[in-house]
Amino acid sequence: MTESFILPFFLTIRILDIIDILLVAFLMYQLYNLMKGTVAINIFIAIFVLYLFWLVVKALNMQLMSTLLGQVMGVGVIALIIVFQQEIRRFLLMIGTRYMTRRFSLENLFSWNIEAAHKVQIKAIVNACMTLAGTYTGALIAVARNSSLQAYAETGEIINANTTERLIESIFFKNNPLHDGGVIITQDKIYAAGCIFPLTENPDVPVHLGLRHRAALGLSEQTDAFVIVVSEETGGISYALNGELKENVDPKELTNHLNALFG
What we know:
Elements: E1 4-6, E2 12-14, H1 15-35, H2 40-59, H3 63-83, H4 85-98, H5 106-109, H6 122-134, E3 139-143, H7 150-153, E4 157-162, H8 165-171, E5 182-186, E6 189-195, H9 211-222, E7 226-230, E8 237-241, E9 244-246, H10 251-262
Parallel strand pairs: 3-5
Antiparallel strand pairs: 1-2, 3-7, 4-6, 5-6, 7-8, 8-9
Helix pairs in contact: 2-3, 6-8, 6-10
């Protein structure tokens, strides 16, 4: 039998009720974190206020207004999916990335011959970023994790070459026709170069950030990739992950973060 606590008057709170409240609070907190700093947070607050108003109208037994708002709330589910499609995508991606691992993927589940994964060449990436930063050469590098970056790779040129410091530097050399796009690294391979990444839709991005930083943020919002940016103006190194940008990191910090994700 489920345990319960009988409070004064008429309230009876079960253990399951407490768990239910905690789960809803956790879900709302995660949704808030995803929408924080975006236009969607204002829309969410407006819908929440409208929902509370609908509950008050129902409690007061105002039939006409209750019916009208009920119809609006009924259609509102479809509207929410359309309006919050970016946030819903990020939320599902967060769940899939944070609470699932590669070892439980369908690819491994139905694979008869599982080969050892090739490690990301962290030292080559960091050394290349240091060299590019020293010469104020802009760069945009996305290191794939669980999300497939195939759709973005197809916007550029497929290379599928071993990841080396010299190759990364040559791709972003100013006279190279591929230097304006992004590089996609998958495991120990430079899979594609000259790729187009989506720009962030966050209106609160600082105005001093250029297109490379906005593209890094945009890709990190839509995938779980780790995206590195070298600024052409300042020579600073930044990285974007899960829709958040960390600016002006030193090589040691970049190495530690890469090791934590791919080491």
